[in-house]
Amino acid sequence: MQVLGIFAGTDPNGVTAQMLQTVLAGVKAPHTTVTVNLNEYNLHMAAPRHPNRDLGQLTQLLIQSDVWVIATPTYWGHESGLLKQFFDALRAHLIRVDQAGGMHPGRFKNKHYVTLTNCYQGKRTNLFSPVTDATFQSVDQVLGTAGLIKLGEAVQTGTWPTPTLAPEKVATLQKLSQKINRSQRKDDQTMKRYLQLFVVVALMTLITMGLQQLLPHGGFWWTYGSFVIIFFALLATILHLMTVKLHARK
What we know:
Elements: E1 2-7, H1 15-25, E2 32-37, H2 53-64, E3 67-71, E4 74-75, E5 78-79, H3 81-89, H4 91-94, E6 95-97, E7 103-105, E8 112-118, H5 123-128, H6 133-145, E9 149-156, H7 167-182, H8 190-212, H9 220-246
Parallel strand pairs: 1-2, 1-3, 3-8, 8-9
Antiparallel strand pairs: 4-5, 6-7
Helix pairs in contact: 1-7, 8-9
């Protein structure tokens, strides 16, 4: 299995590069690693009659690799412009579009990816006023639409004025390496997600019905209304907690 590290930062010795290097260093044989620096490639979207040779080389590396490790700093609350340009230039390869304009996974379906980012904000600020969520969401939207499966993510906060990795962050990145080492070429988690959704709905229904027993008994509309209100409150709470847990913030 080949793991491709994609560097979309500006400083080859900065935190973004350090995060990427740490993850790739933990990938063990028989797996192999390759790293590309997007700064070294021409990423413009070429017309069909004038193919972009650099983009063609990158596409071949993406085809040959089973796991992509995307490393980008968070600038102004989003991924770097370099990564955005990379995704834009690859659009025709990442997805196919039907006659109605619907987007479907392209040739990279069922590959895996990991997202790494960092920001100047401290842990507390990023936890309660998340500046890195949009970066993760953008990568998830692009690669999820392309049919790739997410293995994990990591963020390093507080990179100003000390652009170094915290020891606990090194441990987190090494765990991502271990996850890459254990990954299978294809691992569609659709059924797992449906089962998780079923468990959440079943649990929320049970809690709602239990809380209803504490309320005064009434007719049909009282029972229905109280059920909807309690269920909605539980759903809103769970969705909020899932949003916090969904992305690495510290």
